[in-house]
From TrEMBL:
<keyword id="KW-0812">Transmembrane</keyword>
<keyword id="KW-0067">ATP-binding</keyword>
<dbReference type="GO" id="GO:0016301">
    <property type="term" value="F:kinase activity"/>
</dbReference>
<feature type="transmembrane region" description="Helical">
    <location>
        <begin position="32"/>
        <end position="50"/>
    </location>
</feature>
<feature type="transmembrane region" description="Helical">
    <location>
        <begin position="97"/>
        <end position="118"/>
    </location>
</feature>
<keyword id="KW-1133">Transmembrane helix</keyword>
<dbReference type="InterPro" id="IPR036945">
    <property type="entry name" value="DAGK_sf"/>
</dbReference>
<keyword id="KW-0594">Phospholipid biosynthesis</keyword>
<dbReference type="InterPro" id="IPR033717">
    <property type="entry name" value="UDPK"/>
</dbReference>
<keyword id="KW-0472">Membrane</keyword>
<comment type="similarity">
    <text>Belongs to the bacterial diacylglycerol kinase family.</text>
</comment>
<keyword id="KW-0418">Kinase</keyword>
<keyword id="KW-1208">Phospholipid metabolism</keyword>
<keyword id="KW-0444">Lipid biosynthesis</keyword>
<dbReference type="Pfam" id="PF01219">
    <property type="entry name" value="DAGK_prokar"/>
</dbReference>
<keyword id="KW-0547">Nucleotide-binding</keyword>
<dbReference type="InterPro" id="IPR000829">
    <property type="entry name" value="DAGK"/>
</dbReference>
Length: 124
């Protein structure tokens, strides 16, 4: 592949590659499919409960965090599997750490969702 050294057309191509990667992530990775589905449900809930502009901003950041970290986790796993297809303790350790990062992001998103929606659902 020849690298496009022109600024504008190079950036447009980069966005195209990123969109292709995002599509592959959402359509091929089961954990991302689940997280993406939860994101859609939470968007519907946001409209239903008429959450504030600030709550929307925080919710969108939480979605972005989880999906982005999951994408990085997937990339780490794919690279690790490519480099060392058989089980190896060090590769397992690396993959566990990447998965742990996703867990931190997911817990943060759950906390955000709880802080936004619990008062609306339970009226306190």
């Amino acid at each position: 592949m020849i690298q496009d050294k022109r600024f504008v057309s190079g950036r447009i191509k980069s966005v195209g590659f990123a969109a292709k990667g995002a599509y592959k992530l959402v359509t091929t990775e089961h954990s991302v499919m689940v997280q993406f589905s939860i994101m859609i449900i939470m968007i519907v809930a946001g409209f239903y409960f008429n959450i504030s502009r600030e709550e929307w901003m925080i919710q969108v950041l939480a979605f972005g965090l989880v999906i982005a970290v999951e994408g990085l986790n997937t990339a780490v796993e794919k690279i690790a599997d490519f480099v060392h297809p058989e089980f190896h303790d060090k590769i397992g350790f690396i993959k566990d750490i990447a998965a742990g990062a996703v867990l931190f992001a997911a817990f943060s998103a759950i906390a955000v969702g709880t802080l936004i929606y619990a008062p609306k659902i339970f009226n306190f």
